[in-house]
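Schema walk-through. Below, the input block comes first and the output block second. Nothing else is stored per chain. Lengths vary across the set, and this one has 207 residues.
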Amino acid sequence: MGASSKQNVCSTSNYIKFIMKKLFLVFAILFINSCQTIEKVDSIVFDNQQLSKFDIYSNTIEIKEIFEKKFSDPYMGHTLKVDPSQRIISWVNDNFKSIGNENIFIVSILDASLLQTEFENTEAKNFDEKINYKYDLFYLIEFNLFNDSRDLIATTVVETSRSTTSGLYISIHEKENIINDLIYQSLSDLSSESNTMLKQYMSEFIL
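--- output ---
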């Protein structure tokens, strides 16, 4: 009986040591994984030099914001450091050049709305967020060319829309990057579509 009890004690002790080693290994793996460097998403750079450029036969170029900005949910453009409308203004200022001594070229921003809404992710798996954010951006601008007597001699309208999604619980930095990428991609679409429409309807007034 004495020998059997001693063997049982040794067996229990070895089992406990084995379990402790296993637990130590699991905690060590978790600790290493938690200390790994988190990859950061690069910030979006708004480079107007990558977008379409236009030389307009006009004496002046004017920009008008026609649409009424909204400051309540689901609209969120006003919460950004640089809103979508200001991105259009920056693009026009950088990429449109007047090369004549007559005519007036007017760019009217009819809409530059950015909306944030919640939606249920029906394809979410067990550990995924069930509710996500959806961001919708709509651009609508009008190009008008007037002579010096303010008679309209050429016009065209350009519109684009894009959307993207994100989780609810993301960092401010990640959210800014997602929204800025949406704005830049939309601006790129607007630039490309403007190039097409201006060449189609104002070809004789564009170099």
